[in-house]
Amino acid sequence: MSECFSPQEHVLTPPLIIQQLLRKLAVPVRTRIEEPGQPAAQRVQAVLLEDSAGAVLVLYPRNQLLDLKRLNEVSGRPLSIIKPDRLSRMLTRHGLSSLPALPAITSSPCLYDERLLEQPVLLIEAGVPNLLLDISREHFQLLLGKAKPGLFGQPLSNIRLNLTRPTDDGTEIDQAVQNFTARRIQQRLGETMEIPPLAQTAQRIIKLRADPEANIDDITSVVETDPALAAQVIRWAASPLYAGPGQKVRSVEDAIIRVLGFDLVINLALSLALGRHLNQLSDPKQQRTPYWQQAIYTAALIEGLTRLMPLPQRPETGLAYLSGLLHNFGYLLLAHIFPPHFAMICQHQEANPHLAHGHIEQHLLGITREQIGSWMMRDWAMPDEIVTALRFQHDPDYAGPHCAYPNLVYLAINLLRGRGIGSSPPQPIPDGLLQRLGLEKSQVEHALDKVLKAEAALRELANNISQAR
């Protein structure tokens, strides 16, 4: 029999438990470094689920979405994703960083999507970062042993995201709401979603944001009439991120004039007012990074990137910052509009860690958070730049009107995901996107490092906003 591992073994090798298991099963494999562009149909995704009867290992190809409803029909069991801390303890005990798609690694029964066997070669995570096991279909079948086949994946090719037709968003959102509420009456979005009119503070801030003649006196008067907002502005001004050494802030006006400035205050105040508008919704904490923490990190990075852009390409700094603060506002709206189904979305995200949220939301609801968020921004008369930023933030090729805003959001969220901040896998950053923004890779990495060095201050700012809600 041939050697189990290729000559790359001395560079990067599977954990000892994986090597021993494969030798015991007499299954030859080769190791391969994980690289972009490897066929998703050949990549085997493993996920551990459970019910009252115990755990089940489920295997399916990465070009599919694991449909939990269909899986439960096939298995005849009400399976749900295993608790992350329990999985983490199991992986740590065996010296693994991820769950390999090897049925013998657990004592649990195994289900696999039979379309895996359509591939001549399969690629399995080796239990250490960036290393895959290359196994022929015949040897993979040996590994499956007594595992049971089924069809419970949804091919991603069948899930069509609306990336280019924002004019259809209203119809698609209304249809999704009808599907989940049994309504058949066409209504305007704000009424259909049963979201009450914006609070007076939020309305006044939006009007100021659109008024080119607005000044510091105007925003000061608005902030001072809202005690919670006033306290928050003073906290921001006193935080290490903004306050200079020995600098003391005694009033809202002091905070705006001497420390924060008009643009920063009006954008932070607006994001807080909109978030607070959904006051019955606490952060479900289903994301790896809490909502407001992710918003503040993204906004801070976008601000830094904007300042590096050449003047001809540079967008308005304040609006760019606000785009970052509000980029994931559709997440809050999803939880507010579809509360019975939001948990289902979160469960599918946990069961499909290889997928961005768009495919999951499109499959389950027929719309995405970006569609909902951008439509609501338009309904609230927010600037077109913000509407565009939210709607096209996941399209790296978007080059239409106000393209700098969604391009900056795409760049920022994927840079942060690459450093473990965010809830989806990072997507590639095309050279064309950097060219449109007039940025070099070295500049981008420098801006990211600078933001991460301010981690403590950014966390404090995010915590203050969260508590103020």
TrEMBL record:
<dbReference type="InterPro" id="IPR052340">
    <property type="entry name" value="RNase_Y/CdgJ"/>
</dbReference>
<dbReference type="InterPro" id="IPR007214">
    <property type="entry name" value="YbaK/aa-tRNA-synth-assoc-dom"/>
</dbReference>
<protein>
    <submittedName>
        <fullName>HDOD domain-containing protein</fullName>
    </submittedName>
</protein>
<dbReference type="Pfam" id="PF04073">
    <property type="entry name" value="tRNA_edit"/>
</dbReference>
<feature type="domain" description="HDOD">
    <location>
        <begin position="195"/>
        <end position="396"/>
    </location>
</feature>
<dbReference type="InterPro" id="IPR014627">
    <property type="entry name" value="UCP036888_HDGYP-like"/>
</dbReference>
<dbReference type="InterPro" id="IPR013976">
    <property type="entry name" value="HDOD"/>
</dbReference>
<dbReference type="InterPro" id="IPR036754">
    <property type="entry name" value="YbaK/aa-tRNA-synt-asso_dom_sf"/>
</dbReference>
<dbReference type="Pfam" id="PF08668">
    <property type="entry name" value="HDOD"/>
</dbReference>
